[in-house]
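quick one
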Amino acid sequence: MGTSFTLRNFKPQDLDAVMHINLTCLPENYTPSFYMNHYESFPKAFYVAEVDSKIIGYVMSRVERGLSNHKPISVVKKGHIISIAVLPDYRRKGVGKSLMINSLKGLKDYGAEECYLEVRISNTPAINLYKSLDFEIIRIIRGYYLNGEDAYLMSRRLDFLPEDCTF
Ligand SMILES: CC(C)(COP(=O)(O)OP(=O)(O)OC[C@H]1O[C@@H](n2cnc3c(N)ncnc32)[C@H](O)[C@@H]1OP(=O)(O)O)[C@@H](O)C(=O)NCCC(=O)NCCS
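structure w/ coenzyme A:
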């Protein structure tokens, strides 16, 4: 049976729940002010997913200016997915994909022309999620993570987005 979930933008009162999910799911952890700075600067790209009023996933992103990861190479506004996680009991139900689609839409609203992210080269679930959203591997960043693991830099243009991004 499917679990029904809803998505909405992050609110300050969600901070503890989001930090709990981050600490449960990822080795890359952040201070409260790091989350709040992203919320204050890019609220339209910071989403949470809920099941029965419980927060079970989040995605936090920002917009940067820099060299495009796609041709023609020029200076562009780029979305950057900073962190995404879904609690283990709620995975493989489309939550991660929906979070991503909504955050991409928010980034596009801020004028981002493309979006990139870093992912551990061993993180098959996340890599498959990003590939399912048409992200492509642009390059390897050697020793990107604290334990020395390499990252893939993955990116996609934001000119076309999937339609199913309203919840
Ligand atoms: C990566 C993560 C956010 C995916 O969330 P999710 O809600 O399970 O993802 P979805 O259900 O939306 O999956 C969408 C697609 O991604 C791929 N995918 C997701 N999990 C996968 C897995 N365990 N194995 C293989 N492919 C997987 C599949 O293509 C899937 O589509 P399908 O279920 O129709 O086959 C989740 O596994 C997670 O929180 N992992 C720990 C934190 C993390 O690694 N974050 C990313 C850091 S870069």
